[in-house]
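Priority: medium. Attachment 1 of 2:
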């Protein structure tokens, strides 16, 4: 069992930077899950945060970080694609792009019933791949958590104010049609973070010549981490039980950067924010995932933080966990 010593500052984490792979049920907000963990994790978890919101109607994996792990949110967001299983209905449209609002438009055209209804699964997949794989410009959905003047777009929309934001470049890595039984279309997509799948499905429907809205959405994976390994609700922490910590995964297992092992003097230098020379470090360079970043560990494999090689022989501290971890952990 993990042996812990109380940090001098009780507001700091007594645990290493850990990530919990949690299954969020539909009809709960991401903050509902965060709030539950915050109230029920054992004392000393430090700050808590998540790596990407899931809409209330959606289910699937939600990554929750403690012990400083949430500081890596931007890296998870920038470097790891996300895979979703989206099921939608063709020929209808709702303001929110999902079943949470009433249908406001219906396509009752003969083309929908006589042509689109007869498309094969293979034809749809080929057409969507030709159109969408690669760069994809998308504006945030008006019913989303994107911000404008400090307020979520969905809050503006529910007040009757439609905020139009400029499209942002996203990436579509793969599209696989899982099932098509008109008017229902199930698609598995792998996309860059920040992609609104509700909007993407609407664009899929437009490409097929009609309109469409989602009826379910499941986030299946982030990077190589899959929702099949997620902590289900019945196993969420209760009454600050320590056992839940064993279900956490250290943050460096999610972002597969190479690792540098520092000696005692190098550890002190890194903790004090000093620049290091990569040619003087012991580096496990087997992993080539964004090689300019390095996980920094000591000889006990305690995770110290993240270094960034900004110049050929200059490594500077990018994220330092020493503020969260006591020196004698």
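Attachment 2 of 2:
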């Amino acid at each position: 069992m993990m042996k812990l010593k109380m940090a001098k500052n009780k507001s700091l984490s007594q645990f290493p930077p850990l990530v919990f792979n949690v299954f969020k049920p539909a009809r709960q907000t991401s903050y509902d899950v965060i709030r539950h963990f915050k109230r029920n994790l054992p004392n000393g978890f430090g700050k808590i945060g998540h790596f990407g919101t899931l809409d209330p109607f959606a289910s699937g994996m939600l990554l929750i970080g403690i012990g400083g792990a949430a500081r890596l949110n931007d890296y998870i967001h920038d470097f790891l694609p996300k895979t979703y299983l989206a099921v939608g209905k063709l020929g209808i449209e709702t303001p929110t792009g999902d079943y949470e609002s009433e249908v406001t438009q219906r396509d009752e055209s003969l083309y929908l019933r006589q042509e689109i209804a007869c498309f094969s699964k293979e034809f749809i997949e080929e057409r969507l791949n030709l159109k969408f794989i690669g760069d994809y410009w998308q504006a945030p959905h008006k019913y989303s958590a994107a911000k404008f003047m400090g307020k979520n777009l969905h809050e503006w929309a529910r007040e009757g104010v439609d905020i139009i934001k400029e499209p942002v470049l996203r990436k579509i890595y793969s599209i696989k049609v899982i099932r098509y039984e008109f008017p229902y279309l199930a698609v598995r997509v792998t996309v860059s973070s920040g992609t609104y799948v509700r909007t993407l499905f609407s664009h899929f429907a437009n490409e097929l010549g009609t309109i469409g809205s989602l009826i379910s959405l499941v986030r299946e994976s982030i990077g190589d981490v899959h929702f099949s390994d997620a902590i289900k609700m019945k196993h969420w922490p209760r009454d600050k039980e320590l056992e839940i910590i064993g279900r956490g995964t250290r943050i460096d297992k999610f972002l597969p950067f190479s690792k540098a092992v520092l000696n005692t003097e190098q550890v002190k230098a890194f903790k004090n924010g000093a620049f290091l020379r990569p040619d003087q470090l012991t580096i496990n360079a087997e992993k080539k995932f964004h090689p300019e970043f390095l996980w920094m560990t000591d000889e006990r494999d305690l995770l110290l933080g993240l270094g960034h090689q900004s110049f050929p022989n200059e490594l500077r501290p990018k994220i330092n966990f020493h503020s969260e971890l006591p020196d004698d952990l």
